Amino acid sequence: MSANLIVTTHIFNLAAMKFKYKTYKIEDFIDIVKRKIDRVEGYDPDYYYHIYGNDEGRGFVPGMQIYVGDTVEVNDDDEEIYPPEVIERKLSSLYSCGTFQDVIDLAMRQNNSVSHEKLIECLNYYSNHDDFLDVA
Known about the structure:
This protein is an alpha+beta fold. The chain has five helices and six strands.
């Protein structure tokens, strides 16, 4: 492996660390996803994340705090293994990165000036109906 490849890989991994393992207001993280800072072309497991929070069964609400961390793992017995920081904070699983990105990306393609409130509505709609909300 060349030194350039090692340095480049290290820089990408540092970029992933800049948005993962942090708490955000939902609107602030939506902005990160809208700008696609949370992803790279091709496969890089460092960019896979999961969104956790305390939604108390009501879904996302404006101003809600979320935590972006590692994905939930599943062991050989099909038991979900949550990251230690999620367990310590008593957070619930809210969204996987791919689904969150898909909901935001589709809404932005339909209306590139869609509001945070409408994007939150789209996320909640998808969670409840397993379908995308039309914002066009």
